[in-house]
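ingest -> validate -> predict -> emit
validate: passed (alphabet ok, no gaps, 241 aa)
predict: started
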Amino acid sequence: MILDIDIGNSYAKWRLTDGAEICQSGSQATTSISDGLDLPSGVPISRVRLSSVASDSLQSDLVAQMKSQFNAEVTVAKVSSSTAGVICGYDDPSSLGIDRWLAMVASYSRYQASVLVVDAGSAMTLDLVSTEGRHIGGYILPGLTLMRDALWGGTDRVKVDADAASCGIDPAQGTVAAVNQGSLLASIATIEKLRIQYQSNLVVTGGDAKKLLPYLKGKVDYQPNLVLDGLALGVVSTTKV
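emit:
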């Protein structure tokens, strides 16, 4: 079995595959993985492929656990100047987040055409890849929760319920709704502006993706496990650890 792991800022996802077949998958809070992944017992794992944007210490702890528990080969994905037809747009590829790179590689492999890749997580990232596979560049914005937190922490009078659910993008008649709907509208407007400007296929992933989907126009390709999909292609550069 091959174990693919995607460690994000807030959540970690894992997936067990046997060849091309997905056997089991799961997710948990990133803060909990220092105690181990919630994996099924008794599964023989020969290889672990890891993507991580977490701290070096947390990644090292997990790698040590995997080696001890499974005696498996562990490789960590890294960004390179080009992979599977995608050419990195950064002058220093190592400064690009591996989660963004894997999401781009997975998306471009699906379409072989221009794509706008949106990862709506703790931060919202937007990356553009041309029809020729060139990474045009990208953007990083606060995610929905971070936008609200910035208002609550940086103002005296905008104190609202942190757990209040968004209720649309129409003009609001109250402070709670104004914050939630304003944050959502800002995200939607950014995505739509880029999609129109670059005429790209839109691929969306991330923990907040489902909050955005009802308000995005036209065809939207929702891929909840896009980073894992990129790992599963087995084409990105890796470092054996």
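The chain has two domains: 2-77, 113-223.
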